[in-house]
Design a protein that fits this description.
about 450 residues, alpha+beta, 21 strands, about 40% strand
């Protein structure tokens, strides 16, 4: 029961809204069917499928708001969850930043659903695991990975007549390959909507190659280096930076986009002119729902966020938009960074001296007003000289700001789709060659 059709979802939501006696009511239905297989030490450890269906109801009496959730859908349960939300609303203090439900909206559908991905069966998942485990066994390597396929839907409705529905699919794959003695480690990850674009045999070959290459790592002194960042290595840094594009944070002096003395830096050139980032819900490779369910169902639009280094966009909540006489829009669901045509290895070939970074990990904020981040490299870090990978090197801790990083660009490659567990965005990110990237200390982890 994890997936409801548009008609089924609409019937439940309309019933819920009609049951409410509050001044207004909004409801949201989410559901998913998620299949997975996990393997470690060259053996499958777990596999399964999970169905989930949830209903959330929010009501308001004036500025007093109450919410309640349930996963039962008979008439008695629907009435129970509405009454519970109303009881909580009557007990709640007034919300000084309350915004009423939005009026009826128009949404342009996006192609986020792929039937072949939705039809993935246990046999396919075991095939992915076998494609990773068998070559590792044959090479005396050890594989550990996770493959997840999901089909999901979200539907929203409110007492002003607004309704929206979207169904989507996705595949997430990650695999770490280690040498038997644990001295070498390689990693690969893929995030796709269409399973036909995924090839486990091709992907595992990348992790195997890096695991073999990364044994016997040498130590380099920490310092500033030219780096080639694979898309997965820079995605986490860029997604952290995007949290600073909130207009209220910027206006209140809490963001790198704040101006001294008040105001924000909208319209200012803060990055290398080769940096252009936009959001497009209807992008063919990285499409997302055309509405922002977390922001009352506001429609998403194609947005230029950074154009040739200039900040073009800040995210206004409905409340802050009203305060500042601005237009509130649905928060972007994807980030697409413009790049070139070169691969990661093409960037390596054009590098005199530098470091190739496969992956950054355990990224944490140090200073939000400069977006200074700290984290570690892992699973394949290599010294590059005269356009060739010369030898593996020990991992580093880095202290770097993506704002500075995006001002130190030497070259950008071809964007690829990247998934990041800690990011709310689907991302298209190019490999990057960056000068003066700051490594502060060595890490013994592989």
């Amino acid at each position: 029961m994890g997936i409801l059709s548009e008609q089924e979802a609409k019937a439940i939501l309309e019933k819920v809204v009609k049951l409410s006696k509050a001044d207004e009511c909004s409801a949201q239905l989410t559901g998913s069917i998620t299949g997975n297989i996990r393997y470690a030490l060259n053996s499958v450890s777990t596999s399964g499928s999970v169905d989930d269906l949830q209903l959330g109801v929010q009501v308001a009496f004036g500025k007093r708001v109450g919410t309640a959730t349930i996963n039962e859908f008979d008439d008695a349960s629907l009435e129970k969850v509405v009454r519970r939300a109303e009881e909580l609303a009557k007990l709640a203090p007034e919300n000084p930043e309350f915004m009423p439900a939005i009026d009826k909206q128009e949404y342009k559908a996006s192609e986020t659903f792929n039937a072949k991905t939705a039809a993935i069966a246990p046999e396919y998942r075991t095939g992915v695991a076998a494609a990773c485990i068998e070559p590792c066994k044959n090479d005396k390597l050890v594989a550990a990975g996770f493959f997840v396929d999901t089909q999901s839907f979200i539907a929203i409705a409110n007492s002003k007549g607004n309704f929206a529905y979207n169904k989507s699919t996705g595949v997430d794959f990650t695999c770490t390959v280690r040498t038997e003695d644990g001295r070498g480690s390689g990693w690969v990850a893929r995030n796709v909507a269409d399973v036909d674009t995924f090839d486990a045999k091709k992907e595992i070959a990348i992790a195997i190659d890096k695991a073999k290459r990364s044994a016997d790592a040498k130590a380099l002194e920490p310092g500033k280096y030219t780096v080639i960042l694979e898309p997965a290595a820079s995605a986490g840094l860029i997604s952290f930076m995007m949290f600073g594009f909130d207009a209220r944070q910027a206006d209140e002096g809490r963001s790198f986009l704040s101006k001294k003395g008040g105001g924000n830096k909208l319209g200012e050139k803060l990055f290398d002119e080769r940096v252009s980032i936009y959001s497009d819900p209807w992008d063919k490779v990285a499409s997302v729902a055309p509405f922002d369910a977390q922001n009352d169902g506001l429609p998403r639009e194609r947005l230029d966020i950074i154009t040739k280094g200039k900040v073009e966009y800040l995210q206004y909540s409905r409340y802050w938009a009203e305060q500042k006489k601005k237009k509130a829009q649905g928060q972007p669901g994807n980030l697409i960074m413009v790049g070139g045509d070169k691969s990661t290895m093409d960037l390596v070939k054009s590098t005199k001296k530098g470091i190739l970074v496969t992956r950054t990990w355990y990224i944490r904020m140090v200073d939000p007003q400069t977006v200074l981040l700290t984290g570690l490299t892992r699973d394949g870090t290599f010294y590059v000289e005269d356009g060739e990978i010369k030898y593996p090197i020990k991992n580093f801790r880095f202290n770097e700001s993506p704002v500075i990083m995006l001002n130190n660009i030497e070259e950008l490659g071809k964007p690829v789709r990247v998934g990041d567990d800690e990011s709310p965005f689907v991302m298209m990110i190019p490999p990057m060659k960056i000068r003066d990237f700051t490594f502060t200390s060595l890490s013994d982890a592989v």
